[in-house]
Amino acid sequence: MTDITIRLLDSLDEFYRCVQIARAVWSDAELDTEPPVTYVIAHHTGGQVLGAFDGDTMIGFTKAYVGLHDQIPYLHSHMAAVLPSHRNRHIGRQLKLAQRDDALRRGLRLIEWTFDPLEIKNAHFNINRLGAFSRRYIPNFYGITTSPLHRGMPTDRLLVEWHLDSPRVISAIKELTPEPRECPAQIHIPAAALAAAQDASTSAATSQQGSAFSPSSGSLIGLQSRLRTEFTTWFAKGYAFTSVQQSSFGVAYCLSPYSDF
After folding, report:
1. How far apart are CA 66 and CA 245, in angstroms?
2. How far is residue 191's CA from residue 204's CA, in Å, rounded to a whole number?
3. Measured between alpha carbons, how far is 97 from 93 in angstroms, rounded to an integer?
4. Cβ distance 155 to 140 under 8 Å?
């Protein structure tokens, strides 16, 4: 990975390049792609915009806004993207670790972001690989959008907390965390449902149309509804989503009492 560098962005040209990368990655209609001004605002209001470079060419970025919890500042990581030509090279992980380093340098100890619970790879990356956890489920966070990746469905999201200097995070990023075994409570996604979700994601990623609603979307909405009910029920009981276990039978989202960690 010596050929990839990560640095903070601060120029309009670089912010325009972020927009180009976002359009290439998500194939969104122009109205659903955030304009360069949002990157300018993030940069000038205490947020953060980072770029990943292969030589002189930017091939990925992250954007975060500053927020407050009980008068304590934190970052909300809103976007992260890597061009398809550079995927599977751990660049996304490099971007997140650079995001963490910059936040800690500025005295910020928390980064939050949201992700679709139907995206299993993202769940594994966020929870297992980075050491984040979730204890909040937000139904239809962005509303119904024209983005093909949202499949015409409600944009339900899990909000993850990344406590940057916690033992859990340090163990995860140093790859000291063993494969999770204990699972006090779980939300199970059968292999067949998982395959349908992955197929729908692949179809949506290659679609250039405003709506990616397909025959499989009905079953996905049913799965989404079940996840919404089960996550909100466990979170109300004081549990947090803490690990992902995968097997030939499907995926288990494991939850533990928040008081245990």
Report:
1. 32
2. 20
3. 6
4. yes
What percent helix, strand, coil does the chain show, rounded to 5? 40, 30, 30
Question: d(Cα 12, Cα 124) in Å, to the nearest integer?
Answer: 34
Neighbours of 55 (CB within 10 A): 9
Q: Where are the beta strands (DSSP E) in the chain?
A: 4-8, 48-54, 57-69, 72-82, 110-115, 133-138, 157-163, 185-190, 239-247, 250-257
CA distance 111 to 103: 8
Residues 6+ apart with CB under 8 A from 65: 41, 42, 45, 47, 75, 76, 78
Q: Are 93 and 129 in contact (CB under 8 A)?
A: yes
pTM of the model: 0.88
Give the rounded distance of the alpha carbon of 68 from its chain centre: 20
Residue with tokens 């993207």: 81
pLDDT band (50, 70, 90) for residue 15: very high
Q: How many CB atoms lie within 10 A of CB 204?
A: 23
pLDDT tens, residue by residue, 79-121: 999 999 998 889 999 999 999 999 999 999 999 999 999 999 9
